[in-house]
Amino acid sequence: MRSKMTNMLQLVVLIEGVLYFLIGGVIFISPMLLGRVFGVPIAEDWFQLVKFDTFVAPLYIIARGFGAMVATVGAAMVLPLFDPLRYRGLIYYTGVIFPLLCSGLFLYNGIKYGHAMVIVPGALLALAFILTAVGLGLTKKQAGSGEE
């Protein structure tokens, strides 16, 4: 039987996994779709830029690769739901370290340059970091004794 604290951690992991999967999937399908969601004006000839521009083309491809990685991490977040003790390391890396680094980067640059398209994901990642860190902190004693 799992404790209430472990169930809370699992709920955070589930929400975080769904969030990663959705955001990563949207970026993988089309980074431009994410831009449209935030109301960024996109030029009519953007597809030509993706094909031929030496800066935009790699940036577009790298953004899609990042989206694939984030979606895959979101799908992997289902593992701690079955055995949170065994996959605690996965929770640390994908729920604490990754969101901490990305949210810091996104929020700093988003606020500095005034880009809402970067601030919103940064805020979501900061929230994911905080919730996961709290959940891991609450279950630390149980994990140390080998309980779930």
Please provide a written account of the structure:
Helix content is 80%, strand content 0%. The chain has eight helices and no strands. It has helices at 4-29, 31-37, 46-52, 56-76, 79-82, 88-113, 116-138, 140-144. Helix 1 (4-29) crosses helix 2 (31-37). The radius of gyration is 18 Å and the shape is elongated. The mean pLDDT is 90.
Secondary structure layout plus pairing:
Blueprint: H1 4-29, H2 31-37, H3 46-52, H4 56-76, H5 79-82, H6 88-113, H7 116-138, H8 140-144
Helix pairs in contact: 1-2, 1-4, 1-7, 3-4, 6-7
The helix-strand sequence is: HHHHHHHH
- Oligomer state equals single chain
- Derived from helix and strand composition plus strand pairing, the structural class reads mainly alpha
Total DSSP helices: 8
Give the N-terminus to C-terminus distance in angstroms: 8 Å
Number of strands: 0
Instruction: Detail the poorly predicted runs.
Output: none
Give the helix level as a range of percent.
over 70%
Provide mean pLDDT, rounded.
Answer: 90
Biggest sheet character: none
Portion of residues in beta strands equals under 5%
Round the Cα radius of gyration to an integer and report it: 18 Å
